[in-house]
Design goal:
GO terms for molecular function: galactosylgalactosylxylosylprotein 3-beta-glucuronosyltransferase activity; metal ion binding. The protein is α/β, with parallel strands linked by helices. It contains 9 helices and 14 strands. It binds uridine-5'-diphosphate and manganese (II) ion. Uridine-5'-diphosphate binds next to strand 1.
């Protein structure tokens, strides 16, 4: 039997080790290359997303302005309501806030508030006729609210914006709750659009009922369904070109209860057939008719009577 010399065995073993080492290095670099390729693909995919997002935000800035008219009046919760609303609006691009105070003159509180709010705004005032002003003890439905203020806002747009300007009009009460998605939807309006308003009309929601292919086909309401537009003020937007086309369209204190929105929209010569359905064929709620509880000042009044009023320099 032939004996294999020990040095040959060693050589064989060394060769094996070298082959194994080369194999390992090769597979490792191969794996690394694969990994790098995979990562590069992921980076390029993420870059596409970033580019897309940048494009979107640039586009949003280029999109026409939303002109929102907000009537507001002095009460204990006014600054709290305006703060909440303005901090929602800070997230909306290309937005022009027209704030109309129900007052003989602009108040210091609203003037200061607006100058610090960081939004593009126009500050106006128009006092509600005393005959139509709600008293503290009146139920809120007794009189139409925000009539003179919305008309003043409309007049400002008609006198200060060129009729050629592309834009949208939206009425925003100061105590509602708005989802940011709503403003994206408003900016897709061609002529006029509508969507349901949550917690409105004594219902879960009120406004468009059945919608199909981007059209409102019926209304969902329980009260006065014969109204041409049984919809809350927060449930529609219109192209501002309609304001220049129908210069008389606006609001009136003589309008019967529940007809303010119908009066305005029919004044713009709109019917249900013109209303573009937004908010996922009107199945999403993007605005709520919330109402702020009146502040109770019983203890404050007591302290005033006792001659110990709170610091008058602290604005609430
Ligand atoms: N408003 C007003 N003067 C008033 C009462 C209300 O300018 O005397 C404004 C109020 O700030 C809000 C809008 O009109 O922006 C609608 O009023 P409110 O929210 O009280 O009405 P409701 O929610 O009961 O419909
Ligand atoms: Mn309200």
């Amino acid at each position: 039997m032939k004996v294999i010399p020990i040095y040959s065995l060693r050589l064989l073993l060394t060769l094996n080790l070298v082959v194994l080492l080369v194999y390992c290095i090769l597979t490792l670099t191969c794996d690394n290359e694969k990994q790098i390729k995979k990562l590069k693909k992921e980076v390029s995919y993420l870059q596409d997303i970033i580019d897309g997002e940048n494009e979107k935000s640039v586009n949003e800035e280029l999109l026409p302005t939303i002109y929102a008219i907000t009537p507001t009046y002095a009460r204990w919760t006014q600054k709290a309501d305006l703060t909440r609303l303005s901090q929602t609006l800070l997230h909306v691009k290309n937005f022009h806030w027209i704030v109309v105070e129900d007052a003989d003159r602009k108040t210091l509180l609203v003037t200061k508030f607006l100058s610090n709010c960081g939004l593009k705004y126009t500050h106006l005032n128009a006092k509600t006729d005393q005959n139509f002003k709600l008293k503290d003890s009146d139920p809120n439905w007794l009189m139409p609210r925000g009539v003179a203020q919305r008309n003043t806002g409309l007049t400002w747009i008609r006198n200060n914006i060129s009729p050629q300007t592309e834009g949208y009009l939206y009425f925003m009460d100061d105590d509602n709750t708005y989802d940011l998605q709503l403003f994206k939807e408003i900016r897709t309006t061609q002529l006029a659009s509508a969507w349901p308003v949550g917690l409105s009309g004594g219902l879960k929601f009120e406004g468009p009922g059945f919608c199909k292919d981007g059209k409102v086909l019926s209304w969902y309401t329980a009260w006065k369904p014969e109204r041409p537009f049984p919809i809350d003020m927060a449930g529609f937007a219109v192209n501002i070109k309609l304001l220049f086309q129908y210069k008389e369209a606006g609001f009136s204190n003589a309008t019967p209860r529940g007809y303010l929105e119908s009066h305005f929209l029919t004044g713009l010569h709109l019917t249900i057939n013109d209303m573009e359905a937004k908010a996922n064929q009107c199945t999403d709620i993007l605005v709520w008719h919330t109402r702020t509880e009146k502040a109770k000042m019983k203890q404050e009044d007591k302290l005033i009577k006792l001659g110990k009023p709170s610091n008058p320099n602290i604005e609430v």
